[in-house]
Design goal:
Helix content is about 55%, strand content about 20%. With about 400 residues, it is of the alpha+beta class. It is elongated, with a radius of gyration of 31 Å.
Amino acid sequence: MALNYIWIAFFLIAFIVALIRLIFFGDVDVFPNMVSSTFDMAKTGFEISLGLTGVLTLWLGLMKIGEKGGVVKIFSKLIGPFFDKLFPELKKDDPAIGAIMMNVAANMLGLDNAATPMGLKAMEEMQKNNEKKARALIDDFDGLTKINSFVDLKPVLLFQKVLQNTGIKTILKRKESQKYILDNYELYVENKDVEKTIPYLTGKELKDWSRVLICNKVRQTKYYVDLLAENLINTIVIKKKDSDYHLETISIYVKNDDSDKAKKYISELKNYKLFKEFDSLSKIEKAEELLFSKKIKALIKKDNGKIQLFVKENDIETANKYLAENKEWVVLKTYSDIANALFHKSILEEAGIPSVIINDKDTTFLLGEIELYTEKDYLKKAQNLIAKL
C-alpha cells in the first residue's frame, strides 16, 4: 500500500518540477523529453528483465539438476556447520540453504548474473519459513489462552457450557489438519479470564460433577470415555499440566447422579477380561502400545497397588500371541520436552512404527528425562525417519 503512494508521489513531483521549468524557465521541451525518457527507460527495463529471465532460467535449471543429482545436498552438508551459525532457524535440508550456497559460490566466482537469481530463490524459500511462523503466531497468540483439549468434542463442549454458565467467554477451535496433532478440539479463554477458570480446572467449582477416574494417557482416557458413553453417561475431561506444560494427569468427571453407576462400569469393565498384571507402569505401557499397533484395545487399570491390563474376551488369544513374540524394545531418543517426544511419536505412528513414551524416573508425571522407545526391528527405520525432520 505504501509503495503505491510512493509511485504516485514520484509522478506528482515530476509533473510539478516540469511545470515550474516550463512556466518560469521557458523550457518548452521539458514535457516531450519526459515522455521520450519514459519510453526509453521502459525499453531499457524490459531489455534488462528479458536478459535476466534467460539467466534466471539457466541457473535455476542448473540448480534443479544439482538438487536432483544430490550435488547441492552434498555441498550443503559440507558447509552446514557454517550456515547453522548464520541461520540457526533453518533446518539442515531446507531448500533455502542450497540457494544460499549457490549464491555465495556465484559471487566468489564473479558470476554476478548467476548470483542474482540464486539470491532471489534463497529469499523466496526463507520467506516461506517466515510465513509459516507468522501463521503459527497468529493462530496461537491472539490474546487467548488454551485451557483444555481432547480428541472428542462432547467432553469439551460440556466443560465449555459449565464455564459459559458462569459468564466466562470461551472459544472452541477445531484443528482442521489431522496430521501430527494431539487433540482435535481445543478450548480457549481470553487472557484476562484465565484466573477465573482455575477453580474449574482443578475441580473445586465443578459442583454438579464428580471425578471418577484419573488417567495418564489420552488414548486410555478416550477408551474410558467411550465406555461410559456406551452406557449413556456424559463426561467432562480435564487435563492437568505442570509449569512446563508437561501432561501430568487427565481427570474424567461425570454428573453427581451418575457417579455410582460410572464407578461400577469402570470397576466391572463389562466384556473385558483381565489379561496381564505388571509390576511397573513402563512395562504395561509397552504392552499396551504393542497391542494398539495390532489394533487390539487394551485398558490399563490400577487396583490395590497392582497395574492390570484388560482386553476384550474375544481378543485374549490374539493378544497372547503377540506378547508371546517377546519383541525387544529399545530407546530411540531421549527428550527433556514432552512436546517434542509426542510430535516424533505421532510421526512414527503415521509410518506404522510402534513407539511408546516412557520416563524411568516417574512415568506417571512425565518429569525428568523422557524416553521414546520402539521395537528393535523398527529401530533403523525410525532413526532414519526422525533424522529427516
